[in-house]
Amino acid sequence: MQNQQSNVMPLMAQNDLTATSDATEPMKEKLGRRNVGTGERLVSAALGTWLLSYGVKRPLMIQGQLANLGGLLCLYRGVSGHCPVYARLGVDSSSLGQAAQKTLFAPHPYVLHETITIQKPMEDVFAYARDLRNMKAYMPAISEVKIQGDTQTRIGIKHMNEQNLNFDIETIEEIPNNQISWRLTPLARFDLSASLRLKSAPEGRGTEVQVFLRIKPPVGALGTAFFKMSSPINHVLLSQTLHRFKQSIETGEVATIDGQSSGRASKRHLLLDLKESMAAGMRSRSLQSLRAGRGHQAQNGAGESAAPAQARELAFDDALPRGMDQARQEASPMHKNKKAVETQQKGTVSPSAVRDLGTMSPMSSEGSPL
Amino acid sequence: MKAVVWHSKEEVSVEQVNDPHIINPHDAIIKVTLTSICGSDIHLFDGCIPTMRDGDILGHEFMGEVVEVGSAVKKLKVGDRVVVPFPIACGQCYFCSQQMYSLCDNSNPNAWIAEKAFGYASAGIFGYSHMMGGYAGGQAEYVRVPFADVGPFKVPEHLTDEQVIFLSDIFPTGYMAAEFCNIKAGDVVAVWGAGPVGQFACQSALLLGAAQVLLIDRFPERLELAKSQDKDGRITLINYEKVDVLETLKELTGGRGPDSCIDAVGMEAHGVGALAAYDQAKFSLSLQSDRPTALREAIQACRKGGVVSVVGVYGGMIDKIPMGAIVNKGLQLKSAQAHVHRYMQPLLEHIEKGDIDPSYIISHRVSLDEAPHAYQIFRDKEEECRKVVMKPFF
Lengths: 370, 394
Ligand SMILES: NC(=O)c1ccc[n+]([C@@H]2O[C@H](COP(=O)([O-])OP(=O)(O)OC[C@H]3O[C@@H](n4cnc5c(N)ncnc54)[C@H](O)[C@@H]3O)[C@@H](O)[C@H]2O)c1
Ligand SMILES: [Zn+2]
Ligand SMILES: [Zn+2]
Prior knowledge:
Distance between the termini of chain B: 14 Å
Radius of gyration of chain A: 29 Å
Helix content of chain B: 25-40%
Radius of gyration of chain B: 20 Å
Helix content of chain A: 40-55%
Shape of chain B: globular
Low-confidence stretches of chain A: 1-29, 267-271, 280-370
CATH superfamily of the largest domain in chain A: START domain
CATH superfamily of the largest domain in chain B: Medium-chain alcohol dehydrogenases, catalytic domain
Number of strands of chain A: 7
CATH class of the largest domain in chain A: Alpha Beta
Shape of chain A: elongated
CATH topology of the largest domain in chain B: Quinone Oxidoreductase, Chain A, domain 1
Number of strands of chain B: 18
Largest sheet of chain A: 7 strands, antiparallel
CATH topology of the largest domain in chain A: Alpha-D-Glucose-1,6-Bisphosphate, Chain A, domain 4
Number of helices of chain A: 16
Bound molecules: nicotinamide-adenine-dinucleotide, zinc ion
Number of helices of chain B: 13
Strand content of chain A: 15-25%
Order of helices and strands of chain A: HHHHHHEHHEEEEEEHHHHHHHH
Strand content of chain B: 15-25%
Largest sheet of chain B: 7 strands, mixed
Structural class of chain A: alpha+beta
Oligomer: heterodimer
């Protein structure tokens, strides 16, 4: 735990974000730098030579060409000590890299970072952030929050078949009105910690909030590469969550179109929507909702447009025969209100109603120059 | 309920959809008594605005009666008669506190899409694509209105729906366009586009004391309509199909150029000549989303040190903008989706005093069922269509 924290802290202590980018984005590591260990270089060079010797004898065959290609790469790694694939993954098996725990199977944590300004005093933002019961407002996937002690909180996440997935969160650091950090326990399949840092914005512009999400997937560098590609925990989600966090503090509610009226309640549209949103690059969201197949997990999606909303509408349509559907609507208070307004318009009570009816027959033209 | 639903380019229909209900505590449900089609809706109709989805309910100009309010709504009451501004504003954020309502930080649930496109996200807008929040619009029998204590504006009983509905969008838009121009005594303001927005830009420039307004369009009936409201001969009409616009503007201003130029045309400007053909070609190949003929002309025409006020809507990228003219002539370029909330009260006062009766622009009064046809004739300027209002209930 101490270790985790110390890895997050140096990032947060820096105001110069360019300096953090190296740590958060291994991809940006300098090309050409030596990143292969000595032993591995020898093996690589030997392998390269063998592959080439196989390949040059079979220049017209596909396996010969592949062997040549692989051979060249291995030879290059061996001779130069630099591996472009490692560079992309952020792996470094040289002695330097070993010291920094960046070998292939060492954990490769990465940090997502976002910042937003909230038009409220620091005290308010801090108080809101430290009360984890508020998570339900800004993280719609969370269905339950149970405070279990000073630093322990249990959250329930809606999951497949309405089964709740439980996580425990531990508050690992709290500096009043300044900084707060949590981590997920127990370290199930990956290790996740989050820090929030507050700073007062200039001249009545409220509070600057920086959030750092540090993620350590299993299976070393390859796990990290896979996680970054496929995980729903990404920049979009972080940005959405932060926007919701801000909305909730500033306005007391989170903007949404989930459950609003739309002309998308038919099956045809459900399918189209999925296709459409996949095409729009919202892959993770759609897959998620396909798997989950029910409400509210729109965390990664475009509000109401999230497929689950339609799934719900669909279920509703299928479940209720037309008549019942109507009966249900008529029983709703809004419907009664509508009725009230309607009767008011039909009678002579409302002068505006009468006036409007007069002016509004198609193509009539009271008060117009026509 | 019945609503106007967008399906794809040039395909809208009137359909039964599920009724809206209160979702958030600051929501209200409005029973729509009158709604209208805006030039901005035409951009949607023509498929020029990205992130529209099959099934979206259209409409951002509407008014009606409050039928239900959420638990946190304090000022608005069931039965209130209100006009609703097209941008959705929370009333709490920095931008709302600066009266820049169309830039509200908190009303767009899809801020992340807009951030990708624009860097930062602007306010949610009713019925105006998912990038703008994906909110169901008001060309419907009922509509859900978020932040009901901030947007909906109560209007007095003695004014008709037709007199006040345009407070929802185009009157404030035209007024803001004129306000951007910082009109001083003796100023000449040129306005591109005699559509509804251009009409109100023109009237507002007069209200704000312009010495002359030069109005540019190609449809005689639209130009004449503006002239019909001209009490003291301060409007001059320019038909750009008949004369060379730049030459004429120069001529009419003694060689100085208009003090400010308003673009009330937007991304689907009609154009003549080589550059317009170039735009059309790029647009057809999807290399350019917008065709900025009028904007280019406005920049070129503007006098040194003048203001180019852009309220015509642009969605994405444009090409061949004379940046050299902007820099070397020291122009100011000002633009926004209208901060409608800011203008509703002062403009209502103008209406009450009789300075202007906005209903003069209405040419078509139809029922909601006729929306598909109305979209088509408004876009194509057929049947002398200038502005359509639709009534969901009869
Ligand atoms: N900024 C805002 O808040 C806001 C609000 C409402 C509307 N708008 C935008 O304002 C624009 C106009 O809206 P409208 O309702 O008046 O639409 P409209 O389509 O009825 O009017 C546009 C007018 O421009 C004319 N025109 C086309 N090309 C021209 C050119 N090259 N030179 C001069 N005139 C030309 C057309 O003939 C038409 O009369 C649209 O882009 C709309 O999206 C912006
Ligand atoms: Zn509009
Ligand atoms: Zn706001």
